[in-house]
């Protein structure tokens, strides 16, 4: 398993709820989390098959900003 981390603007429960269907579809439920307490709102994705580009695309499609951490 590889771990990918990104800075995002996913900063509240409502944001997490909005991005959950997309990330669950791409990464699988339980394979990602957002640290909203961190000033950079770090999204951590654990996956063997996803690339950083795929995660960036999925989060952008859900309407959020994202960049590699």
Automatic annotation (TrEMBL):
Q: Which Gene3D superfamilies match?
A: 3.30.70.100
HMA domain mapped to chain residues: 1-67
Listed PROSITE patterns: HMA_2 (PS50846)
Its Gene Ontology molecular function terms? Answer: metal ion binding
| Matches recorded under InterPro entries | HMA_dom (IPR006121), HMA_dom_sf (IPR036163)
Q: What is this protein called?
A: Copper chaperone CopZ
Record the organism: Hymenobacter luteus
Taxonomic lineage per UniProt? Answer: Bacteria, Pseudomonadati, Bacteroidota, Cytophagia, Cytophagales
